[in-house]
Amino acid sequence: MNSERIIKKYPNRRLYDTEVSRYITLSDVRELVMGRVSFKVVDTANDNDITRSILLQIMLEEEAGGAPLFSAPMLAQIIRFYGGTLQGIFARYLETSLNLFAKQQQEVTQAWTDTPFDTVTRLTQKNVEIWAELQDDLLRAAGFGLSGERKKKGEDPS
């Protein structure tokens, strides 16, 4: 059985959760996201997967209320990547960065009770290494070589 929850969006703009057999709101979908429930939103008019559109609607609501996560200059910079040669690389970079951030947030929460200073030091060192690798991958994909310091360490520039 497929573990992905199916939510149907009807032409009247209502969302129907097939698992609980009832109509739900965007707020309910947000709760699924927060609960890490795997789901897919399908447009009943054409069977298209519109999950991304629904998630973007939730983000717009979140941005409109309270303190926004994205500044206008940040959004403008993201828009500039659309259609460019680095769009795919940028998307992978953002996804990897967010996954790393979430994983480290979880690690900090778990390890904070041990020795906070050691935890922060270890995570900082790990972050520097990971960001350097991500930066090298981005530079390589853009046609540039490794930075001078990493070249000196004898790492393979390809």
From TrEMBL:
InterPro entries: PHA_DNA-bd_N (IPR012909), PHA_reg_PhaR (IPR010134), PHB_accumulat (IPR007897). The gene is phaR. NCBIfam families: PHA_reg_PhaR (TIGR01848). Residues 70-107 form the PHB accumulation regulatory domain. It holds the Pfam family PHB_acc. Residues 6-65 form the PHA accumulation regulator DNA-binding N-terminal domain. This is Polyhydroxyalkanoate synthesis repressor PhaR. It comes from Thiorhodococcus fuscus. It comes from the Bacteria.
